Every structure is written in C-alpha cells, then in structure tokens.
C-alpha cells in the first residue's frame, strides 16, 4: 500500500518518515537517483518482508525549496521544504561572520527568510564583542534573537511558531542545546533515530527534524566549518548580498565583480556609508575563495 510521509531523519540509503496518521516508517531507499533529506515529502510503499514498520521510498515530491551547501565540490542538500533559516552564533567560541554571509547567500537565493540567534548571552564578558560582530546584519534588517539556550529558549518561540525552521551554524554554537530546550523529548527521539540509522552509533551526521508542537518544527544540523558555494556564480553570490541590489547596474563596467575595478558602485556605496565595509570585504573574500576553489578543482 502506498502512503505519503515526511522525512525527519536521513542517512545513506535509509531514512525515517512520519505519515499523516503519525505512524513512523523505517524507510529504505533503492536506487542512487533518490536522495531523500529532512523535510522531504516522500511516497512510500509498505515492505512487510523487511518488518512491520518497514517501507521503501518510491518517489520524492517536488521540493518547494532546499538549503544546500557545497562540500568537496559536491552539492549537499541539507534539508528541503523549509519556511526559514536560523543561523546560530554564540558569545563563545568565537564565530565567523564570513560563514554567516555564506549561509545568508544560500538563504537569500532559496528565498528563505533568515534570523540570527546569538546564544550564550550568559557569557557576558564576550557579549559586547559578539554584538559588534553582528552589527552589519542588524543594519540590514535581519532579526537577531539573543538568548542563553541552557537557561531559557523562550525568546525564540514566537519566531518559530507555525513554521519549519532549519538551525545552522558552526560547531559548538548551541544548536542541539536549543533543540533540547525546545523539545523535551528530543533526547529520546535522537536515540530512536540513531538506533535505526546507524545501528546505535551516536555519531550520525545529518539533519534531524523535531516537532515543537503539531505545527512547529525545527531541524538540527551538524556544525559546519566550511560552507562552500560551488555552483553559485559571481552574480548569484552578489545577489545574496541584499544591500548590493540598490546599486546593481551602476558600476562602470557591466561585468564588474566588485573586487577592485575602477568606478565600482559598491566601493562608492561603502564610501558614502550605504554599504557596510565589512560586508563588501567579506563578499570579496568569498568571491576570491570560491574562484580559487573552482580553479583548483579544474586542474
Ligand atoms: N554558557 C552556555 N553554554 C551553552 C549554552 N548553550 C549551549 N552551551 C554549551 O555549548 C556547547 C555546545 O553546544 P551544542 O548544543 O552541542 O552545540 P551545537 O551547535 O549543536 O554543536 P554541533 O552539534 O557540533 O554543531 C555545550 O557544551 C553546551 O552545553 C548557553 O546558553 N550558555
Ligand atoms: Mg549539535
Ligand atoms: Zn562593482
């Protein structure tokens, strides 16, 4: 019998999915062309020979959006069918604003609203510095929610309500702590997921989706140290810097990459205070790094 279900954990050729009656299915994926991810709607077919709750994924419904990054030049879809992205940073360990920009590029191009979460505000010796790092993003209008996940996650609740939110960020920022705070039974769920997906090993990599309440979901993801943008060209990446759009087409050269070209409208906008210097610097760093990565690959 065929059913439709939503994937809440995926690993290799296996995934866990919940159907609309809330039944959980241990799914096997046949064939290389199907690669379900968290948030996918999948057609599954019961496979009683493999177990009472076993099924085979037969199709993935068209995704309304994806959040993806490049790792070793392979596009890695992290999750699908999202409503927004929460980028976690923390007062400690220190975080990279370049990574924030890279994640914002992906969110922007996927048309996903992004919110920044500054965690560990209980570490007050580092709070001022973290806030300073976030100033360019605040100026762009991105909401910044400050909290201490280990004390009180409630400042984020209204932002999450009624939506499916992906948590992303570097390792150690507190994504999983935040999930635990919002979903008390998360630990039990994680054990169930691990026991099926990697036969008990605790190190399952990959996203996992949890319900905060029947219409609110959060997706925890493993921390990233790099967030490649392979597959996005210079124009795409520029588009991911939303404040650049007001000056698009105003550079002297039509193909200006806003690196060092004379008559660059972005550089002028920095001079007049309309673009934050740090944002242009990070944009340039990302363009150079992606170009270096691409040329290394083609040699
Ligand atoms: N002081 C303080 N520590 C926190 C807070 N939230 C989380 N931590 C600690 O930060 C460390 C990392 O938290 P995790 O939740 O594992 O971080 P993560 O983002 O899930 O990390 P990865 O899974 O590696 O990506 C843990 O030791 C937490 O106890 C907080 O609000 N304040
Ligand atoms: Mg974690
Ligand atoms: Zn330019």
Shape: globular
- Could you estimate the helical fraction of the residues in percent? 25-40%
What is the β-strand count?
A: 13
**Strand-pairing-aware structural class:** alpha/beta
The Cα radius of gyration reads: 21 Å
If you had to describe this structure to a student in words, what would you say it looks like?
The protein has eight helices and 13 strands. With 299 residues, it is an alpha/beta fold. It has three domains: 2-60, Nucleic acid-binding proteins (OB fold (Dihydrolipoamide Acetyltransferase, E2P)), CATH 2.40.50; 66-220, 3-Layer(aba) Sandwich (Rossmann fold); 234-298, Probable gtpase engc, domain 3 (Ribonucleotide Reductase Protein R1, domain 1, Orthogonal Bundle). The strands form three sheets. Strands 10-9-8-11-13-12 form a six-stranded mixed β-sheet, with helices on both faces. Strands 1-2-3-5-4 form a five-stranded mixed β-barrel. Strands 6-7 form a two-stranded antiparallel ribbon. The termini are far apart. The mean pLDDT is 92. The structure holds guanosine-5'-triphosphate (GTP), magnesium ion and zinc ion. The site of guanosine-5'-triphosphate has 17 residues, from α4.
In a nutshell, what does this entry contain?
The protein is of the alpha/beta class and 299 residues long. The protein has 3 domains: 59 residues, Nucleic acid-binding proteins (OB fold (Dihydrolipoamide Acetyltransferase, E2P)); 155 residues, 3-Layer(aba) Sandwich (Rossmann fold); 65 residues, Ribonucleotide Reductase Protein R1, domain 1 (Orthogonal Bundle). Helices cover 28% and strands 27% of the residues.
